[in-house]
């Protein structure tokens, strides 16, 4: 959540409090570019569908070119996600398989790979 007061648009006109959103341009030199998996953050965990995270897992602080694989507890591959977008350090998994079918409650394992490096972890999904 970002809280701001006395925000103005590019021409100096104040943005009204009754507006609920605003767009901001961030110059590229201020965008953090990640080049390894040391700062990887996976959240929320556990994920409870219907909660404030809308039934999704966020993989954050990813370098471009990262591959994410999601496995069930039997070792079956459920989903493969790639980060190919430039200047995009986040990938969202909507708790589905490669056929876009919602997965059931359980423990899932993620494997995040980038340039020969690997991070693994578990995700608890509660429906």
Would you mind describing this structure in some detail?
The protein has no helices and 8 strands. The protein has strands at 41-43, 47-48, 57-60, 67-71, 77-82, 90-93, 106-114, 117-126. The protein has a 5-stranded mixed sheet, with no helix packed on it. Strands 1-3-6 form a 3-stranded antiparallel sheet, with no helix packed on it. The protein is globular and about 60 Å long.
Sum up the structure in keywords:
127 residues, mainly beta, five-stranded mixed β-sheet, three-stranded antiparallel β-sheet, 34% strand, globular
How are the secondary structure elements laid out?
Layout: E1 41-43, E2 47-48, E3 57-60, E4 67-71, E5 77-82, E6 90-93, E7 106-114, E8 117-126
Parallel strand pairs: 2-8
Antiparallel strand pairs: 1-3, 3-6, 4-5, 4-7, 7-8
CA-based shape: globular
Strand numbers in spatial order across the main sheet: 2-8-7-4-5
Question: Can you give the mean pLDDT?
Answer: 83
Number of helices: 0
Helix content: under 10%
What is the tally of beta strands? Answer: 8
What is the CA–CA distance across the termini?
26 Å
Work out the strand percent.
Answer: 25-35%
Output the radius of gyration. Answer: 18 Å
Order of helices and strands: EEEEEEEE
Structural class: mainly beta
List the quaternary state of the chains: single chain
Extract low-pLDDT stretches: none
Largest sheet: 5 strands, mixed
